[in-house]
Amino acid sequence: MAELAHDASSCLVCRAKVEAPRRLLQALALFAAGLCVTTGILNLRPAKAKTVVRVPKTAAAPSTAVHRRGAQARLAFAKVVATQEARDAASTALEQAAAVGLSRRFFDGGVFTSAARVAQWRPQVVRAARAAGIDPNILEAIVYVESSGRADVTNGAAVGLTQLHPAAARRLGLHVDVRHAKVLTHRIARSWHAKHAHQLRHWRARYDERFAPAKALRATAQYLAHARATLGRDDLAIEAYQTGIAALRGTSATYAERYFHGGRVDDYALHVFAAERVLHLFRANRSALAFEAQQQARKNSAEEYLHPLSVTHRFGSPGAVLRAEQHRALRMIPVDTPNTHIAIGGSLGGEAHKFGRARRLYRALRPQALTTLMYIGERVHELARTTHPLVLTSAVRDNRYQRVLMRVNANAARSYSMHTTGYAFDIARAYSSTRQARAFQYVLDRLVAANAIAYIREAAAIHIAVAADAPAKIKLLETLG
Fold first, then answer.
1. Which of 15, 219, 307, 397 is the most exposed place for a label (fewest CB within 10 A)?
2. What is the DSSP letter of 261?
3. Cut 0.85: pTM above it
């Protein structure tokens, strides 16, 4: 047994000696593997499947075409904004021009008397306007246009300083008893005693508050404030006092666009602007108002206000006209009827042969007048849609020609003829149709409102005087479309 134990033990020892190198190598291998895992050199985690992220087409970077479309949209929007800004600026400029161009109606009578009568209501106007949050000058101008400052004036159903109608006055909170007011008005007219008449007026103002100036002014100011809040513009609010808010509700155009471009409103607001200007001159510069009143009264139009005699050059002789044409101070009127829609009449320059000159010499105008003539021809042609042209019967003249013409033409000016300045021409009152006549009148009214021309209606022709800045006004009209 001892031998067997000795053999077994010796066998185990021999086997250990034999296997020692292999086990050492295994230990070293395990140690090396552990070191690699610890340091991250060897990754024994199971591999994950790769996921492909697909970007949807809508989230892709915008292409060149998209960039181009965006730039075009921004450019179109900028053009629209610039166009609208230009139209707003043109509207404002034309409304300011109309304050001058339509002032003539206030110079037919005593402008100082009317302005002074309106000015006496200024304190009450200011109180009413400030309470409603509107411009006192606008309310005062409406008083001038409606009643010329006469609180008792009656025009049909309209009564008082601002000519309110019964229904409108009641909507604005005024008490209106037309029957009793008429009875008192009749008694006032028959009264011979000043104190009695004054008492009757006081009673009438209680029955019909339109005859109470302070209450009528407050009601009018409230209406203007409501119209401005509804329509969003002061000029439309003024026109609404004439036409009503419903007629202008929902419009996006300015008043000037509606008047000068479409003719969808009358010229009431423009007359209010003109009255505002007259009252401003009455308070601030009465000498300028007196000068304008003098110039406006000289003829049947405002042409001498456009070109006063003291500062306007006149052509004294045929030689002066010829030199002006050579130096381009006068421009020849083109003989191109199909394109200009203006025909040269047979009477133009008809007296030139009496002093040895050609008729062609007097077929010329100042550049401003020629531009206006071409505009009238084109505009009337567009509106009337007719092939028949307007007929031009007279253009520039000189003083010598004017003296000869006075012997044969009763309408020739005896003193200061605007034709001798080159700023005037005549259009025959011979139209191919009623449509052409109306179109011509429409164009004339718009040019007068823009303060570009002044005209006189003669027996056989329309005499038109052109302002020195008429081309600029025509550009403003074209800006509105």
1. 15
2. I
3. no
